[in-house]
Design goal:
Number of domains: 1
Number of helices: 9
Distance between the termini: 15 Å
Oligomer: single chain
Strand order of the largest sheet: 2-1-3-4-5
Helix content: 40-55%
Shape: globular
Radius of gyration: 15 Å
Bound molecules: flavin mononucleotide
Order of helices and strands: EHEHHHEHHEHHEEEH
CATH architecture: 3-Layer(aba) Sandwich
């Protein structure tokens, strides 16, 4: 999709990134959202930081890449409620099985899940995981709970997964995610 077609000027997107090998693709996604004029606040879980450096997202988004719920007591950044309030879209790509479970259950043990509970913005999740994790009844039940709450999903694709299996669970490609962002905004 060309940048001309995707106009996100003055739109604020919280970009959540969770602990998946697909986390590296969030850098491309962030960069494309920025090109389209969006204001992007990246939030990485602790596990996401094992896969991608917060610095990459910080440089691409020109905003602090937040990782810690307690950062606001030490720094003069916007606090988690301000970030939640400012969002026009709460996007998590990749969304881990764990993050989907936390969201479905309304748990808030870290910054991303806390901002999730505090925002009124539409939520768009792009799951990425091993096919057995995706097909697990617990994951499917959690997805169903969220669908019933009008959460939006970008379906994972079928393909060769990083774990070596072939099947469903590959993060949707960035173009498909951007297409859905455009529909929602
Ligand atoms: C190499 C590796 C790759 C992983 N990839 C995924 C993945 O694609 N999706 C997923 O749901 N979990 C994956 N996990 C497991 C998660 O990182 C783990 O469940 C973690 O607790 C998720 O935390 P978070 O939701 O806070 O990011 C992976 C773990 C490892 C060690």
């Amino acid at each position: 999709m060309s940048v001309e077609k995707l106009n996100l000027k003055d739109r604020t997107i919280v970009l959540g990134i969770t602990g998946s090998i697909a986390a590296y693709k969030s850098a491309d996604l962030c960069s494309r959202l920025m090109e389209a004029g969006a204001k992007v606040y990246p939030i990485l879980t602790e596990s996401a930081c094992r896969f991608i450096q917060p610095l990459t997202l910080q440089i691409l988004s020109k905003n602090p890449a937040l990782t810690d719920l307690w950062y606001e007591s030490e720094h003069n950044h916007p606090n988690h409620i301000q970030i939640a309030d400012s969002a026009d879209l709460f996007l998590v790509a990749p969304a881990s099985a764990n993050c989907i479970a936390l969201f479905a259950q309304g748990l808030a043990p870290d910054l991303l899940s806390t901002v999730h509970l505090a925002t009124k913005a539409p939520v768009l999740l792009a799951p990425a995981m091993n096919g057995k994790m995706y097909d697990h009844p617990a994951t499917q039940a959690n997805i169903q709970i969220l669908r019933e709450r009008n959460y939006h999903f970008v379906e994972p694709e079928v393909g060769l997964l990083a774990c070596g299996y072939e099947g469903i669970g590959k993060l949707a490609n960035v173009e498909t995610i951007l297409e859905k962002v455009k529909d929602l905004l």
